[in-house]
Specification:
The complex is a heterodimer of chains A (383) and B (95). Chain A folds into three domains: 1-58, no CATH class; 60-277, no CATH class; 295-381, TPP-binding domain (Rossmann fold, 3-Layer(aba) Sandwich). In chain A, 66% of the residues lie in helices and 3% in strands. Chain A is built from 16 helices and three strands. Chain A has a three-stranded parallel beta sheet. In chain A, strand 2 (345-350), helix 15 (360-367) and strand 3 form a beta-alpha-beta unit. In chain B, helix 2 (31-41) packs antiparallel against helix 4 (59-87) and helix 3 (45-54) runs antiparallel to helix 4. Chain B has a domain at 29-87. The chains are: A mainly alpha (383), B mainly alpha (95). Chains A and B meet through helix 1, helix 2, helix 3, helix 4 and helix 8 of A and helix 1, helix 2, helix 3 and helix 4 of B.
């Protein structure tokens, strides 16, 4: 790698880091996203092969036609998905894009493994290890994300469990790791191709088996976890094809995604192990409900509400997902504007997991033109 | 070119800490866009797809590489677009 490319990669990495950093504040989030996208564009334009050749000056072979067609198809899928998805269906969309990324990571690693294993130089244990890791994690993320997508779409939303599931999953994982170990040291042997295909299929199946027992309400945590998995798979691909930009980007996503997963679990008041394996223990989340609710329900009429609101000094709206399903957020915004004209101070108290994933409610209210400085988090609104 | 393994691992380890550091103070209102944004960044696998497809020699490698390019392209373009669509709605109150 000559030093010019190295400097470009450093610049691209800085853009990614700044992009993620700016994404963490509502004022700068949009700029942050665009900065990260600019970094991606620079990386694409300056893309070099591991051997040092500039990708876009190798003559126009048939493979480049394929690259162009594939890029356009992917662009179309991405654009249609991104601009047609309803804001309430946002978690599914993220799951789908994440799954595609995972699938791509697994395919890249598989092809590279196949190619290097049969090259004259042969494969190093480090190279084989990172390619197998990327294949395993990428395909697991692919199938897991698709299940998460289907669950959020309302297909088999209930957790699916059967006795001995944990043990079966553990056994599958052991077999996968055993095959990986075998392949690391026998990359080009007679059985290698079979072992690789079996490993790939088992990893796909493991992704399904891992997500199936988890309920639809916990899917956001699963998607966030699979997102960081895909990041790690991309980083491992970066190791394998010696592309530092991929290592940096993948690792950033892997580590920030892991932290984000933990933050989400914290916001939902559940330990991460409970989310991932909670379906197996029967008692897990039932404690609060079992204690029973005491008190009386007092119904209220619309005109009474209007009276109360009009003469209040300060009104705090605590929206739930039902508001978004009923598409009532626009009416709620109009209501708060009317109250604002009367001098009533209106705020929204957002529970961290209102909506279908943490922060989803903020997106839904933002869509209804509620300014984000009226949206207050749970910790701030409760003094 | 033989990759310098300790150098790469050095970068990897530092990047882990950077990744944790940059989002340590993110408010939960931005969890959804942040997940979507980082999702777009790992779309850099698109380049991995380009690199393997550019050097593909067998039909199988071309087919799988093609699929990888389609997936990666959808991930990276779709990811950034959907994040932008979400974030353009975050506005301050108009005075």
């Amino acid at each position: 790698m000559n030093s010019t490319i190295a400097y470009i990669i450093i610049g691209v990495s800085v853009l990614f880091i700044i992009g993620i950093k700016l994404l963490a504040s509502p004022k700068t989030a949009r700029i942050g996203n665009l900065i990260a996208a600019a970094g991606m564009l620079i990386a694409l334009v300056s893309l070099h092969k591991p051997t040092g050749g500039y990708v876009w000056s190798q003559g126009w072979a048939f493979n480049y036609t394929l690259i162009a067609i594939g890029t356009v198809i992917g662009l179309a899928i991405g654009a249609i998905g991104a601009y047609s998805v309803k804001m309430t269906a946002m978690p599914q969309m993220v799951a789908m894009f994440n799954g595609l990324g995972g699938g791509a990571a697994a395919l890249v690693a598989s092809l590279e493994f196949e190619r290097v294993a049969h090259s004259n130089a042969g494969i190093t244990a480090f190279g084989a290890g990172s390619m197998l890791f990327a294949t395993l994690i990428g395909s697991l993320s692919f199938s897991g994300s698709i299940i998460a997508y289907l669950k959020l779409e309302g297909k088999f939303e209930k957790p699916m469990t059967f006795p001995g599931q944990n043990i079966l999953n553990g056994l599958i994982l052991l077999v996968i790791l055993g095959l990986c170990g075998f392949l690391t040291f026998n990359a080009s042997g007679g059985n290698a191709a079979t072992a690789f295909i079996v490993m790939f299929c088992l990893a796909l199946f493991f992704g399904v088996a891992m997500v199936m027992p988890i309920g639809g309400a916990d899917m956001p945590v699963v998607i966030s976890l699979l997102n960081s998995f895909t990041g790690l798979a991309v980083a491992a691909d970066g190791f394998a094809i010696d592309n530092l930009a991929m290592v940096v980007a993948g690792t950033l996503v892997g580590s920030s995604g892991t932290l984000l997963t933990l933050l989400m679990c914290k916001a939902m008041n559940r330990p991460v192990t409970n989310v991932l394996f909670g379906a197996f223990g029967s008692g897990g989340g039932g404690g609060a409900a079992a204690a029973g609710v005491v008190g009386t329900v007092k119904p209220i009429q619309a005109d009474e509400v209007a009276l109360l609101l009009a003469y209040a000094q300060r009104v705090v709206v605590v929206p739930g997902y039902g508001m978004a399903v009923a598409q009532a957020q626009h009416s709620v915004r109009e209501l708060t504007e009317e109250l604002g004209k009367r001098g009533v101070e209106v705020q929204f108290a957002i529970h961290p997991v209102a909506g279908r994933m943490p922060g989803h409610m903020n997106v839904l209210l933002a869509e209804a033109n509620v300014p984000y400085d009226q949206l207050i988090e749970m910790e701030q609104i409760n003094p | 070119m033989e990759p310098n393994i300790p150098d790469i691992i050095f970068i990897f380890v530092l990047a882990i800490f950077v990744g944790i550091e940059v989002i340590s103070k993110v408010p939960s209102m931005l969890h959804t866009p942040l997940m979507s944004g980082t999702n777009a960044i790992h779309g850099i696998i698109f380049f991995g797809g380009i690199l393997v497809l550019a050097d593909a020699t067998t039909l199988l490698a071309q087919v799988l590489g093609f699929v990888a390019v389609v997936f990666g392209s959808a991930n990276v373009f779709g990811g950034f677009m959907v994040t932008d669509r979400m974030l353009q709605m975050f506005k301050k109150k108009k005075k």
